[in-house]
């Protein structure tokens, strides 16, 4: 199996800008970019680059970065060292559960999915059909998610009123089973209601405007800056390292790898091989799209079971692929 991990500059810039604005609005002091740029040099490297570019607009915030594996260790040993974390989607999905576990479990972890003027708020955890109707579920995560929605609507005093009632309830020892108590869902909810202070109707909701239907700017080099220099063609070869022509027109075979490890040229290392090989062809001069098409046609005529192809480019003279792993 092979799956693409797509990180774009416009998406990163929009997401990171929101994170910095959120940190500023909440009076935070530090924001940390979490990544794996030491391995994913192109994709996570782009994410980190965008982070530090945007950080220059927020001099009052301390901006730094950390590798995802190091973060996980430090969140367990000294979580107080961090303030605001900003992560790509997969890392954030995993770390949010880790953080939830450190503060009482998924039953107390809220979540929000915030877009341009629109948002959906929900608990970090999924549904729990195995305890439906038993009166033992902890409603804290859903309640805190609703409070995030109130803040999104600028109903801050309403949110603070409910949050204070929740805090008083927990401090009094009324808790559901997952937090070490014996209160039912209904008993817990009634205790929160009893701790609510009088309602203030003076605060008006703020509805964010709908996003304008205009094309979003894309930060990317012009088309003339892109020059085609080769291809990675993925070949299925159940019999072992595929026998491929050394040259395909202007293209010359430079490397064959298996599961990220080079197996050609040179003697293949003593590793477990699968029947899926990445075969890299590069040229010494810029190519045309037709050169790739002709090369694939020759491979097909030779009976090569090629399954997938990725074109390799230089942009402004910089190769958009690594020499060893072939990351793009």
Name the features:
seven-stranded antiparallel beta sheet, 328 residues, elongated, alpha+beta, Alpha-Beta Plaits, single chain, Isopropylmalate Dehydrogenase, 23% strand
Q: What do the pLDDT scores average to?
A: 88
Number of DSSP helical runs: 8
Cα distance, first to last residue? 17 Å
CATH architecture of the largest domain: 3-Layer(aba) Sandwich
Please, could you describe this protein's structure?
- The chain has helices at residues 9-25, 43-55, 68-77, 89-102, 140-152, 156-171, 185-194, 289-301, and strands at residues 30-35, 62-67, 84-86, 110-114, 119-123, 226-236, 247-248, 251-258, 261-264, 276-287, 306-315, 318-319.
- The relative contact order is 0.09.
- It is elongated.
- It folds into 2 domains: 9-194, Isopropylmalate Dehydrogenase (3-Layer(aba) Sandwich); 223-319, Alpha-Beta Plaits.
- 32% of the residues lie in helices and 23% in strands.
- Strands 6, 7, 8, 9, 10, 11 and 12 form a 7-stranded antiparallel sheet that branches. A 3-stranded parallel sheet has the order 2-1-3. A two-stranded antiparallel sheet has the order 4-5.
């Amino acid at each position: 199996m092979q799956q693409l991990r797509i990180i774009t500059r416009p998406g990163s810039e929009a997401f990171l800008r929101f994170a910095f604005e959120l940190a500023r609005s909440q009076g935070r002091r530090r924001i940390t970019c979490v990544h794996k740029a030491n391995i994913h040099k192109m994709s996570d490297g782009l994410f980190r680059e965008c982070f530090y570019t945007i950080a220059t607009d927020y001099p009052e915030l301390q901006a730094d970065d950390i590798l995802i594996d190091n973060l996980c260790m430090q969140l367990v040993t000294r979580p107080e060292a961090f303030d605001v974390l900003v992560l790509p989607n997969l890392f954030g999905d995993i770390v949010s559960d880790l953080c939830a576990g450190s503060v009482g479990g998924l039953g107390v972890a809220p979540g929000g999915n915030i877009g341009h003027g629109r948002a959906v708020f929900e608990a970090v955890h999924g549904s729990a059909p195995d305890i439906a109707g038993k009166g033992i579920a902890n409603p804290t995560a859903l309640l805190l998610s609703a409070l995030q929605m109130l803040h999104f609507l600028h109903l801050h005093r309403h949110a603070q009123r409910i949050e204070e009632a929740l805090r008083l309830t927990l401090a009094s020892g009324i808790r559901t089973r997952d937090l070490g108590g014996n209160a039912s869902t209904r008993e817990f909810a009634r205790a929160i209601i009893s701790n609510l202070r009088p309602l203030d109707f003076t605060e008006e909701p703020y509805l964010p405007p709908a996003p304008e239907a205009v094309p979003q700017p894309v930060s990317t080099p012009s088309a003339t800056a892109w020059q085609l220099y080769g291809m990675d063609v993925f070949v299925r070869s159940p019999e072992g390292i595929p026998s491929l022509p050394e040259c395909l027109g202007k293209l010359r075979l430079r490397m064959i790898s298996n599961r990220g490890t080079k197996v050609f040229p040179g003697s293949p290392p003593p590793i477990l091989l699968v029947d899926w090989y990445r075969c890299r062809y590069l040229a010494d001069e810029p190519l045309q799209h037709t050169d790739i098409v002709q090369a694939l046609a020759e491979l097909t005529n030779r009976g090569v079971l090629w399954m997938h192809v990725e074109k390799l480019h230089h942009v402004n003279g910089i190769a958009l692929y690594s020499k060893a792993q072939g990351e793009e």
